[in-house]
Structures are given as C-alpha cells and as structure tokens.
Amino acid sequence: VDFYYEVSRSLSACEGAILLVDASQGVEAQTLSTCYSAVEEGLTIIPVLNKIDLIQADPDKVKKEIEEIIGIEASNAPCINAKEGTGINEVLERIVRDIPPPEENFTESLQASIIDSWFDNYLGVVSLVRVVNGSIKKGDKIEIVSRKGTHTVEQIGIFTPKVKYLEELVSGQVGFICASIKEIRGAPVGDTIIKSGSSCGGLPGFKEINSQVYAALFPQDSEDFEAFRDSLEKLCINDASLQYEPEHSQALGAGFRCGFLGTLHMEIVTERLNREHGIHLIA
Q1: Domain 4-98 has what CATH class?
Q2: Which long-range contacts (CB under 8 A, 24 or more apart) does 33-39 make?
Q3: Across the chain, what does the average pLDDT equal?
Q4: Lowest CB count within 10 Å: 54, 55, 136, 256, which one?
Q5: Taking the alpha carbons of 102, 107, 111, 116 in that order, is the dihedral positive or negative?
Q6: For the structural domain made of 213-282, what CATH number should be given?
Q7: Which residue ranges does the record assign to the Tr-type G domain (predicted)?
C-alpha cells in the first residue's frame, strides 16, 4: 500500500515486469496487489524465484503457488540467487526475448505522459516523460494540458544511468525534459505534454487514491513554517499521493494535517523533510 503510487507510475512506462518471489516465503499479499496492477496495464510478466540458496527454499512449491494464485505460467521461471549472481544471465535473456518493444507512433502529434517530476533550484521543474506519440526536440514550444502557458524545451536527455543529453526524444522513449517551468506545480505527475497550439487532449492519468493514514505535523521551530510549506510543495511534485491541508494547534502553532498511504509512507516523508530540507518536525 505504501508504495502503490510509485508502482503505478513505473508500470505506466513499461511493456513488461519481473515478478520477483522469495523461494522461501512464497507469494505474499503485497506481491498480489502489485502483480494485479501490472496485469491491468497489460504488461508481459516474467516470474523469477530468488533466494534459492536458502535451506527452506522450495522452488517447485512456489512455482505452483504462482500458477494457482496469480494464474501465470511459472514452470520455466528462472531460479536465481541475487546475492551471488546465480541465474541472472537467464533473466536478462528472458527480458530480451519475451518483453515486447514499445509501440512507435512517429507520425502522430506529440503526446508525452509525465511519470515523475522534481524541482531543481536552477533548472526549475524537471520532468521524466514517456513519449507515447510523436517526438519532442530542443527548442520546441510545449504546453502542459491541465495548465496555461507555453514553455520552450531547453534540455532533453535520458539516464543510462548517467545523464546523457540528446537533441530529441521519439515515440517509445523514456527521458527527461527541462523547459524552465518555475512554478512548483507547473508539471504535475500524470499530466500530458503536447506541442503548443495542438488540439490533442491528455492521455489517461494515474488513478486517484485516498490517504489511509493521517497525522498532524508541526515544525519544531515556528520560524521554519514557511520553509516547511515550501518543502511539502516540492515533495508533492513527485509524490502526488501525499496530501496536506493547514492545521493549527494552540500548543504547537501552525502546521499541516497530512495524509499518507501508510505508516511507512509517513516515515519516509518525514525523513525526507529532515534529510533533504532540514525541517525537524513534531508529529
């Protein structure tokens, strides 16, 4: 539950997924929910059994579980030991052989889905996109479907995992773009990028999900309130599952009532606020 939103974003940019199952534990509840999300996206799923070196590992039993519970053929599932690197070559060969290439629609007008965004103090909003239709080049005038205004693409590239700058991203590619968008919420995750003046509509966005855990957060130092608010806005760029609204306490002062997907999600957000933004909080 805590990572559902991150999973849904990743799946929307893929043609396939590896279903990694612990050979000593079998299929777990979290595995089921994530796998069903991949099935809904129509992805090719490759089951892989890990930790086969453990004494309690039972690959044959787990393969049968995968077939009976999830409904995926697993008789030929690779058995690996990720710690030692055993069986990894077989997994790589299966990825190349079984997962189809992305569909390419070069002749259509640009439609690029924003699958992640983060804020850079110098570049503004940096968006990780999947180009579904058409292409996007440096110097192109673009629009965000749900926002007003035109932006000029200044940088384009991919991660290999190092940054590699390009002149163009084409249909089927996943890469990043910078267009000097200074408004923190100027390129929301799930939105669509189109050419300026294009009549194309937006692509289907991510499903809206409801918070499961709520907590009131207050800065330890009341003078950090504005910095706290700015930090929350920046976190919300790439974590739209984080929700917040103003909260006031007579004892603790001004803060925010925040909604999270789970307790682990809450811990990660508060840790990021502390580590990345220097905000010390009282929950």
Answers
A1: alpha beta
A2: 33/1, 33/4, 34/7, 35/70, 35/72, 37/4, 37/7, 37/8, 37/11, 38/11
A3: 88
A4: 55
A5: positive
A6: 3.30.70.870
A7: 1-103
- Residue extents of the structural domains in the chain: 4-98, 111-195, 213-282
User: What angle separates helix 263-277 from helix 225-238, to the nearest 10 degrees?
Assistant: 120
pTM given for the model: 0.74
CA–CA dist 83, 89 (Å, integer): 14
Q: Could you tell me the two tokens for 54? A: 């453990």
What pLDDT, in 10s, does the model give residues 216-242? 999 988 888 999 998 888 888 777 778
Q: Percentage of the chain with pLDDT > 70?
A: 96
The domain defined by 111-195 carries CATH number 3.40.50.1100: no
Tell me the three state secondary structure of residue 277: helix
Strands 111-120 and 124-133: antiparallel
Q: 109: part of which helix (H) or strand (E)? A: none
